[in-house]
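Case study 2.
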Amino acid sequence: MKPAKIRCIVAIFLYILVCSHFSLATEYKLSMLPRYSTEEINKRIIPLAKYLTKQTGMQIEPTLTASFGQYSKQLSSGNINIGFENPYIYVMAAGQHEVIAMAVKGEDGDKGDGGDKFRGIIITRADSSLQTIEDLKGKKIAIVGYTSAGGFLSQKLTLVQHQIDLSKECTIEEAPENKQENVILAVYTGDVDAGFIRESALNQVDEFVPPGAIRILQSTEWLPNWALSVSSNMPVDDKAKIIQAIRDLKPGDPVLKALKVNALRPAQDNEYDPVRIAAGLK
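Prediction:
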């Protein structure tokens, strides 16, 4: 056989080998709960996907969902292999996903974020007659949504501790589009007597609400922060690679800055038990 022909066969063989290698490369989908706009979510998760791809040698593809419901469904079905979600969505999918890290945000008390935890507040108009949490009985309350940790579950947990049954003793209204700012506006306009929001959201509508028009009736229970989770059926070696890559992220890393967290610390499933209690799952 002529040398030129041999070289051609070898080249074809190498090409097939390389193509086979890439086609067989492990691919996982990474997504984030759609709490923000599509553009904002892309800014947050694309750097993480690129980092994990580089560090693990696996193909990590960012993907988007249109709603909380769609995200939760895809998380539980395995269509999302790596997820970043609020604690309520995590505990609802914990049978199919397991937490590997928890978000750490501001310093204690910084804008309502206490490092690896956050909490909600109960707000009312400054001129409201409501003075204590017991005064909420029989009142109309706006919440961000039943899946909102800072805009419902934190407050519910506190009310349970005060022997107040929200579903029986109060009238609940979900905010349009499940937006924190719509709760604040409903309180300001007097459409509701009180509102449940995440503490860090208090000043979101300052340009529309006069200073001093809203007051905090009560700060409520702290909850564990957002979870970074992986599919429970992910191969052990692949999960280990992802965990190690997350642990290798240093404070100030551009990946963490893009995700708008200070760190992603190791986490265990039982740290989310307070959320299960508030959601009536435990």
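Residues 75 and 93 are 7 Å apart (CA to CA).
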